[in-house]
Amino acid sequence: MVNVLVCVKRVPDTSGEVLLSPDGMTVDARHVGYTVSPHEECAVELATRVAGATGGRATVLSLGSAEAVEQLRNALAVGCDDAVLVEAEADLFGPADVAATIAEVLRARATAGTTYDLVLLGNDAADTGDFQVGVRLAYALGRPVLAGISVCEVHGETLVARGDGPDGTEIYEVPLPAVVTVLEGGVTPRYPSIPGRMKAKRATVDTVSPAVEPVGNGRVRLKLPPAQPSTVEILGEGPEAAPAVVDLLARIGVVGR
Q: Among 123, 104, 115, 112, which residue's Cα sits nearest to residue 177?
């Protein structure tokens, strides 16, 4: 039996244009909704598969405001068994703070009799691009860590994981307990069913306070990349433009000359 803890973060949904807050420290989500990253959606899917295959339980955790319960219930609706909200102002917590907080939750649950042999996280934060939490968490727990994993499964006391490397697919075997950060693409996240949504709506979310005093992330500011320039070529107007259109299609190989 392998119990799995999967960690998700409430982040602004993707949109055509990314806006920053006036101080440049966070993504401005006033015009979009909230979600979790595609990496974390795949991590949730893997968590439910591993727990289901071994007779364990999958628990989803998020650090953030009370509104993050929405993302936790979405994970419950697709197969997670339990949910934990560490209620705090997420912007005050840097990667080291988040890792330390998750480690304290794991220790508290172990003291209460529930242990997790596998912890899954998204490979990086969708809003701030932090890649540190998984590695820092593994270090705090004294566990092996794998990053950039697409698929994983448990065989006895060993985790077998696959990820893309520079020369093709790489296969790793590490002993449990372990920490893994997940890249999207290895599995297809499921959509919640109506019974799943009803179950998630009724489920109790365990809300706890952080046991860690955050020191922050040391971020100076976020910076958007410059907009890519674009050009427009006017081929002509009306029927007179037809020969130019044919020449263009021929240049790009759509039609033959």
A: 115
Domain regions of the chain by residue span: 4-208
Question: Tokens 């508290």, residue?
Answer: 108
Rounded to two decimals, what is the model's pTM?
0.81
Rounded CA separation 138/38 (Å): 22
Q: What is the CATH number of domain 4-208?
A: 3.40.50.620
Tens of pLDDT along 192-237?
999 999 999 999 999 999 988 988 776 767 777 777 777 777 878 8
- Angstrom distance (rounded) from CA 93 to CA 193: 34
For 250, residues 6+ apart whose C-beta sits below 8 A from its C-beta are: 256, 257
8 Å CB contact between 77 and 23: no
Closest by CA position to 39, among listed 145, 155, 134: 134
Q: Which two tokens stand for residue 9?
A: 């973060």
Judged by DSSP in three states, 197 sits in helix
Which three-class secondary structure state does DSSP give residue 66?
helix
C-alpha–C-alpha distance, residues 183 and 38, integer Å:
8
CB 58 within 8 A of CB 1: no
**Which residue from 46, 64, 55 is spatially nearest to 8, judged by alpha carbons?**
64
Q: What is the pLDDT of residues 49-77, one digit of tens each?
A: 999 999 999 999 999 999 999 999 999 99
For the chain, the distance separating the N- and C-terminal CA atoms, rounded to the nearest angstrom, is: 66
Other Cβ atoms within 10 Å of 136 Cβ, number:
21
